[in-house]
Description:
By secondary structure, this protein is of the alpha+beta class. Helices cover 30% and strands 35% of the residues. The protein starts with a helix and ends with a strand.
Amino acid sequence: MPRTVCxxxxxxxxxxxxxxxxxxxxxxxxxxxxxxxxxxxxxxDDVPVVVEIRKTTFQSCTVDxxxxxxxxxxxxxxxxxxxxxxxxxxxxxxxxxxxxxxxxEVLDRQLASLEADAASSLREVNTxxxxxxxxxxxxxxxxACSARACDDVDVARTRLASVRSAVAGVVDAVAAPxxxxxxxxxxxxxxxxxxxxAPGEETWSQDALGRIDGIQRTLDAIADRRTAIxxxxxxxxPVLERIETYTPSTTDVVPLAVARRSKTxxxxxxxxxVTLEPMVYRTTEDGVVVVAEEIPPVTTTVVYQDxxxxxxxxxxxxxxxxxxxxxxxxxxxxxxxxxxxxERRVTETDHADTQIxxxxxxxxxxxxxxxxxxxAAIGIGVNPNNGGNVLEYFVGGGLVIDGxxxxxxxxxxxxxxxxxxxxxxxxxxxxxxxxxxxxxRRAGGLGIGLTFRIPLPK
Length: 458
């Protein structure tokens, strides 16, 4: 038995898993969809930690190691859509045209030409505005996770090239000119005012001035739309730069600054690289509808703290020392006048081949191994099983798991209760004695402990 205990103890102490090597530790975060749980990480002081982010090819992720949240970046797509919101159109004037009098035919034709040119420019700028809106609204479908776009880097590059082409079409579009039309309107307005001073020209002049007012309102609408398209271009220009510099990938590895005796809060934020929204766009099974799934930030912690040199644990010890109590027992000898007769003898009053004993241990770490820590173990416990509370001991080895749970294997140094003062098991006990004298003799056997860590005072 001692040899068996020794072999088990040595095996427990010497087997240290290879995963305990003090190298760079990894904190894995899955940002491909919402709802993934992320475990905290505890490492020794000065141990390098990297954050491994699993993501879709269209997500651009950042790691914030401060406690406060970062303000979200402005969304250029949203800005562009805001400035490209539909404008109130210019109502056509439902009036009857007054015929031009002799000598005003040229001005009348110039007015008609300017009206046609202004209407054409308005249609052109409205078309540009609508094209820009349609392009921006189609971006989620172009960035949706279908046809392996979120998992295949090559497919993602092709998609991003299409997105770049669409955005560049908005940024590079030439808006309809309005300055020349304004100059023509100003010149005609001056000429019509001069014409209105001539006798007999009042009716036509008033109608012409009304037409010029309608033209001016059209030109103002064109200018407003040109301004909106210009703001959209300014908002989308950085998008082109981001697309050109962004490299699709399915993982990001971000190293953290090494720290000592500290708790670092790590927040991972992933935004769509094009829309700058915390979304992953997906198509439904039929491939028709695009659904935006919001990916909230993921926050976890990294605790930098050296492994303790020892652990105090408490629990139970399974012992192969038999449980034994001796005392006085009554044994039937026969009958006397119809009544049973007994004699009192020394006997075992309680016995079991094994026993469970409450124990506390000091587990002394044999290496700086955080997951599986081999340790030398010494223990002490109070055994109530053998006729009273007896202080007993343990010597052996242990394995501490995650610094919280320990398993000990070794030698239980216990005791057995025996009769003394000349008494032996089976002896007759005089009637005047209610109990017999006993003694506890030391005994040893295999002991296996299962205990839980008790924090040491700091």
